[in-house]
Fold:
Amino acid sequence: MDDRLKDLLYFIDNQQASDLHIIPGNFPIMRKDGELFPLTQFDVLTAEDTKFILFSLLNEEGQKKLLKYKDLDFSFSLDEKRRFRCNVYLQIQGWAGAFRFIPNEIKGIEELNLPPILNEFIEKRQGFVLITGPAGVGKSTTLASLIDTINHQRSSHIITIEEPIEYLFISDKSIISQREIPIHSPDWHRALKATLREDPDVIMIGELRDAESISIALTAAETGHLVLATLHTNSASQTIDRIVDVLPENQKNQARLQLASTLIGIVSQRLVPRIRGGRVPACEVLVANNAVRNLIRENKIYQIDSVIDTSLSEGMISLERSLVNLVHVGEISLEKAIEFSLNQTKLKYLLEE
Structure:
């Protein structure tokens, strides 16, 4: 690894930043608490600089893949305490890289300020739990926390399928098999199909990417496994629509029935800047009760938001109510609540209650 990159990675770790961007013609850039900051204390990087720095991370095989496909996802450890996920890609000015810091310590559900009902979700031995939200909102961190909680609480065989592997787990009461695409299996579909023959109790899928992976995940949840996965969607109702809509027409009805019978819950999260620095999760929570299951079966997904609004006592909460709660306890500003809300009319109504 090039010494310039080492210096940058140690620097962003010391600054408690989440990301580093290396782009030709620019100062290195860090992302902290969701905002981008140019690191003007370092030199502007030329196209030759970025290519040398980024290619220094790769062996000959990795360089060949990068030159063939023009982008490459991988992860690496800087030392025993610091691990990063990286994407190297070609853009108009040359080779660029995005680095995401992966904390060495896997925090618990309470430490991450996540909804306590997640503890109930992972007590189940069978079913489907989905963690959703846009990119960069901590979905992988939440998923890792759930897996590690199971690891410390009960005897299970946990299999993770990731691209690339992010958090590294140490087996405790459970045994954990981590598989990275394409190092440990050539593609997602083969890895997912093989998982069903590997005697798992818990299956973690880094990301549901297409119709086939969704179909296999539903089958796994239906056949006696606890399946945890992420999806890039903005809300619980949108998540259900996406799962069904991505499938071929002749599979949609079966998928609704499978989802209705297997779904445990959906958490759609955002990371909102705190008043005192750092970020705190705001979460919409859907619990799959009988009313939700019936709406999924009957394809009345548009009514799910109303169920969430009226089921606070069952652990459900809308994103807007979660934001309002954070405002009331002084964690976030009203301006940030408005910025991160998907329904500002509802948010203002809840603020006036």
Observations:
- The radius of gyration is 21 Å.
